[in-house]
Amino acid sequence: MFQKVLLLFITGVSVTTLGIAGCTAQQQDSAAEVQPPVLTAQTEAPTTTTQPQERPGDVPYVPTPQPVVDAMLQVAKVGKNDVLYDLGSGDGRIVVTAAQKYGTRGVGIDINPERIQEANANAQKAGVTDRVEFRQQDLFKTDLSQATVITLYLLPEVNLRLRPEILKLKPGTRIVSHAFDMGDWKPQQTLQVDGKTIYYWVVPKEVPANLR
Ligand SMILES: C[S@@+](CC[C@H](N)C(=O)[O-])C[C@H]1O[C@@H](n2cnc3c(N)ncnc32)[C@H](O)[C@@H]1O
């Protein structure tokens, strides 16, 4: 299984950027699930306390290269009225870049407490802690209803597991995935950046029968 996952990333990601971090546990932050998406102003470093990870993550940590992050945000045309959720947010680069460049409010979800700590430190360095929040949480247990944009860099089977939940979201919600598609749900746009593929969808008003 591990070899299969590794192969997928090697084919989708340059070997030099491959940096798999140990995924040992899961944490469910049910309090965080009910937090409203409107973020409160913070002038100090976020005081998020992380919990031990209780189960391995579903995807290894591999960061998206910055030019690909920039292109993902451009294709989704993120703006200051958006609420962006990055599912499996790693070091927070997608959420932090969106806040820095476009004033977008963002929520990063990661199961790994080390990633949450890194992401909070990066938000602090970038001066965007008033617009972003990182939650140590399982992405499959996350309420996505407030998202206007969702970014993904996961795995094909994880995208497929998420697809029914994504298709229940508000029509018009934009989805951007680095490297992996959504099976029969054909993207509205596909682009190549530095040898990586980016897929873009918009949640339709009517979900086709084959995708339900
Ligand atoms: C390939 S990395 C992507 C990081 C970041 N989104 C980026 O593009 O740079 C996938 C991330 O998903 C996290 N992850 C894996 N399974 C998860 C789960 N069930 N819930 C939340 N995060 C998860 C990992 O810890 C890792 O940081």
Task: Describe, in plain words, how this protein is organized in 3D.
- It is a single chain.
- It is built from six helices and seven strands.
- It has 212 residues and is α/β, with parallel strands linked by helices.
- The chain has one domain (2-34, 50-211): Vaccinia Virus protein VP39 (Rossmann fold, 3-Layer(aba) Sandwich), CATH 3.40.50.150.
- It has a seven-stranded mixed β-sheet, with helices on one face.
- Strand 1, helix 4 (93-102) and strand 2 (105-110) form a beta-alpha-beta unit.
- The protein binds S-adenosylmethionine.
- Residues 23, 57-59, 61-64, 86, 88-90, 93-94, 109-112, 115, 138-140, 153, 178 line the site of S-adenosylmethionine.
Keywords:
212 residues; binds S-adenosylmethionine; alpha/beta
Give the arrangement of secondary structure elements:
Blueprint: H1 2-12, H2 30-33, H3 66-75, E1 83-87, H4 93-102, E2 105-110, H5 113-126, E3 132-136, E4 149-152, H6 156-166, E5 174-178, E6 189-193, E7 196-202
Parallel strand pairs: 1-2, 1-4, 2-3, 4-5
Antiparallel strand pairs: 5-7, 6-7
**Helix vs. strand class:** alpha/beta
Helix content: 25-40%
Strand adjacency order, main sheet: 3-2-1-4-5-7-6
Task: Give the total of beta strands.
Answer: 7
Beta-strand proportion: 15-25%
The general outline is globular
Number of helices: 6
Bound molecules: S-adenosylmethionine
Largest sheet: 7 strands, mixed
Kindly report the name of the CATH homologous superfamily.
Vaccinia Virus protein VP39
What's the gist of this structure?
The protein has six helices and seven strands. The chain is of the alpha/beta class and about 210 residues long.
